[in-house]
Amino acid sequence: MHPPEIRAHARRLYLSGANVADVARSVGVSYRTVWDWCRTRPEPALQGTALRCFRCRPDHNPTDQRAYAYLLGLYLGDGHLVTTARVPVLRIICSNSWPNLIDACEQAMKAVLAGAVQRVQKQGCVGVQSYGTHWPCLLPQHGPGKKHERPIVLAGWQREIVAAHPGDFARGLFHSDGCRVGNRVTVRGREYVYPRYLFTNESADIIDLCRWALDLLGVAWRMNRRNSLSVARREAVATLDRHVGPKS
Predict the structure, then answer these.
(1) Which of 31, 44, 45, 101 is most buried (CB neighbours < 10 A)?
(2) How far, rounded to the nearest angstrom, does the alpha carbon of residue 1 sit from its chain's CA centroid?
(3) By three-state DSSP, how is residue 227 classified?
(4) pTM
(5) Domain coordinates of the chain in residue numbers?
(6) CATH (residue range 65-243)
(7) Helix (H, G, I), strand (E, B) or coil at 223
(8) What is the DSSP string of 45-59?
C-alpha cells in the first residue's frame, strides 16, 4: 500500500496536465496503479486524524507547530506510543503534583492532532492519552523497547520545527524529565540559594537533543553527571525562565 501523500502528489500532477505515463515515472509507481488513482477511483474521503495529519496532507497544515515542538519534548521524556493496538494510542505520564502541566499536555495533543483526549488516573500520576491512526506519522521515534536502548534521531522535518521553536521543545523536555530547583551553596560560612535547572534522561541521544535546543537558545549548560545536565548561570536561568519556567 502506497503512502497517501504519494497518491495525492500523483493526482496533483495528473490534474495539472501530465499524462498517466509521465506521472507514473515521476512518482515511481506502476502505470496501472496511477491509472486507477487518477482515472477510475475517486479520491477516498479523509476521516478522523487523517484530516489533521500534516505529514499526510502536506498541502494543508492545520497543526500548531509550537504545540508540536512542546508535545515532542513531552513524548521524548515521559511518553510512549503504542502501535500494537487496533488504533495507535499516545500516552504521556504526568505527575498529580503538576495539574497545569496535565492541562498543557492535553491542550498540546488537541492542537497537534487529537480530536479527543482522555485522562487515566493512576497512583500518583495521570496518563494523558489520545487514540489516533496518524500518531505514528508524527512521532517516528516510536519503536519496541525503552528509548535509551535504541537510537533516537529526529527526522529532517522535525529538526526544522524544533530549530524554529527551540524554547517550546525545551519546555516539553524540562516539563517531563527536568526541574527548576533552589541550589544551596555555602561560601565563607554563609548559605546562598540560587535557581538552577536540571534535565535527566538515560538516553544519550535525548540528552544531545536537549543540549542542541539549549545551544539554539544561547543557554549555557554543563553535564553534572553522565545522564544529567545543569543550567546554573544567572543569565542562562533567566532565559529558561522565559521559555520554560517552573512546573505548576
Answers:
(1) 101
(2) 26
(3) coil
(4) 0.79
(5) 4-44, 65-243
(6) 3.10.28.10
(7) strand
(8) PP-GGGGT-TTT-TT
